[in-house]
Amino acid sequence: MRPAYEFDDVRVEPDAFRVLKAGQPVALEPKAIDLLTYLVENPGRLVEKQELLDAVWTDTAVSEGSMTRVIAQLRKALGDVADEPRYLETVPTRGYRFIGDVRRDPTAERGPTGVVRFGTFELDRSTGELRRGGQRVSLQDQPAQVLSLLVSRPGDVVTREELRRAMWSDDTFVEFDTGLNVAVNKIRQALGDSATSPRFVETVPKRGYRFLAEVHAVEPRAAAEIPEPRAPETTARRGPGRGRTVWLAGALAAAALVASLTAALRRNADTSDHPAIRSLAVLPLANLTGDPEQDYFSDGMTDALITNLASLPALRVISRQSVMRYKDSTKPLPEIARELGVEGVVVGSVVRSGGRVRISAQLVQASTERNLWADIYERRLEDVLALQGELARAIAEAVRVTVGARERRRLMSARAVKPDAYDAYLLGRHVWNQRTDLALDRALVHFRKAIAADPDFALAHAGLALTLGPRQVYGYVPPGTGLAEQKAAGLKALELDPGLAEARAALGAARTIEWDWEGAEAEFRRAIELDPSSMVSHLWYGWNLRARGRLAESVAHRRRALELDPLNVLVNRPVARDLAAAGDEKAALAQWSRTLELEPDQALTHLDVARFHFDRGRRDPGLVHLLRARGLEFEGPWALSSLAVVQAASGDEREARRLLEELDAESARQYVSPVLPAMIHAALAENDRAFALLDRACAAKDPALVSIQVGEVGFIRLAQAPLAALRADPRFDDLLRRMGLR
Known about the structure:
Blueprint: E1 4-7, E2 10-13, E3 18-21, E4 24-25, H1 30-40, E5 46-48, H2 49-56, H3 64-78, E6 88-91, E7 95-98, E8 103-105, E9 115-118, E10 121-124, E11 129-132, E12 135-137, H4 141-151, E13 157-159, H5 160-167, H6 176-191, E14 201-204, E15 208-211, E16 216-217, H7 220-224, H8 242-268, E17 279-282, E18 286-287, H9 295-310, E19 316-317, H10 320-323, H11 333-340, E20 344-353, E21 356-365, E22 370-380, H12 384-398, H13 405-412, H14 419-432, H15 437-453, H16 458-473, H17 483-496, H18 501-513, H19 517-530, H20 535-547, H21 551-564, H22 569-581, H23 585-598, H24 603-615, H25 619-630, H26 637-649, H27 653-666, H28 675-683, H29 687-699, E23 712-713, E24 716-717, H30 720-728, H31 730-738
Parallel strand pairs: 17-19, 17-20, 18-20
Antiparallel strand pairs: 1-2, 1-8, 2-3, 3-4, 5-7, 6-7, 9-10, 9-16, 10-11, 11-12, 13-15, 14-15, 20-21, 21-22, 23-24
Helix pairs in contact: 1-3, 4-6, 9-12, 9-14, 12-13, 14-15, 14-16, 15-16, 16-17, 16-18, 17-18, 18-19, 18-20, 19-20, 20-21, 21-22, 22-23, 23-24, 24-25, 24-26, 26-27, 26-28, 28-29, 29-31
């Protein structure tokens, strides 16, 4: 049993998997508790980012963005702030240090151990034996373990996540939700309890369970005096193997029942009696392994199904980032459908075991919650691409959309893929979605590993090309780094699969980086022709058009990207910027408001809104958003530059210069594009210094210059006055001519 830790009025109980503040449980996601535990176990020591990622996340599902988000959540829960921390100190570019006064409590326990009594029952927590009046009450191993954890914390809500982590082992393939419900029902049967009028186990909707009765420890002597029943049961005592075996058998039986019901629905399905569905959301497929570190696989299956369905021109399919917000959601399907603006929803599950993969899928008409179709698909891992194509064709038939000859050939032509290669590819996709420099570096490792295992795997080559682009555009690496490899990977992917829209989009990005504007446009147009529902293609094409000053066309494609991915902040924010540039202030503010609803603690969005208000002389609302941004997690060259430019727009020249000095110091530790300090100098009306840096960037063909014509560099945008001054300088036209924009 691990000790508990305390600092001020906060108590961290690792074994109980909870954090208390002033004696009350703090609502934190599991990774936040894990991260805080690791830091308080290492107080005063700088914990490098990589060490934290390895300790809290595994290599299969890790990103620096996730860690930053969890740190922000912890600060909010603990009442801490980044600028003047009491507990969590950020060491820029390196990691975090816990600076609070930590006290260790080695005697902490999660409640009574050994034999405990509640009502007329006694439970031996070491063996799982339940007795009433000295007579043993039949209770299987898994429900006994659940009961043991509940009685260890009487009066507390024990969350479903805590129960999953404590009771369901990583190597057991079960459906957790069903398994827990069955276990709790068994407990209630044994105790003569009721779900509607509970005396012992209360259900706390959407959260977990609470044990209501008082629990008392039983002295060892009293426990010894309890007589054995005349006919004791032969149930084995709890052990690591026995409980899993019994539970797995029950889970397989439940799975067989689900399969039979699914088969009945499949046999009776008649798609002719329901209206055609033209918009669809594939909700995250449930991971039935019970192991959260396998989420990347179920998420990858979700992603693949979305991609295959999105290639059908007659169907609008919501992109990955938006649907992932509903992972583990308890919202009703009609509500989810309304939020996403779709007519149909696909739900299902994935399990991988013994070299095989099984996907169970169900199509639901959102407005009526009517089940329209269901089926189960199982193949060897080598044939997973064929399985995905077959599933997509079946759903297309169920929603009554026409699958053209080209799309049908594509869905039916999937080749076998080596399991190791596909696994590495899914890991790469998983971290690629985070877009941070560390996440993109890790994605490269996974994609290259996939290609090494299977050189003819087109998706892995496309993934590599998609990853190399953002590293250059965001200035994470020096100009030209990876450009040749990006183009080669995109071309190789198209050689292996000419219909791969993602590869076309990656080539469009590469040609944009090279300032081959017309060639890039041709690639983006071809990508959209291949896959009209490719959010990435529409978003990146909008970026290309915006850089060239074609604002109306950019708005159209970015709006289309928003339709495909309505809950993705990376899509919402550019749309708001375009609307502001087009002069539609009301629509722009509404879009930014929507973006902040999705992620209230997104510093870059607050900076966008602050600059927007400062541009229009509205200092008070601008300062509100600027101060909010400064209170959030903020580090790295792009973040420093963004903040400095907005500080200059606010009139705080001194703070902007301080941040510029900090950026200069940062350049000694990592690559910093000269375009970033150039933007700060321009914001400070120091155009000579700005142009000296911009000339240097132009000579190196720095990708960060792509959108300089509209005063943007990645996440940074100049205010109207400094942009107008920059444009009025003859050197600006010369810069644009060298870039091929004049």
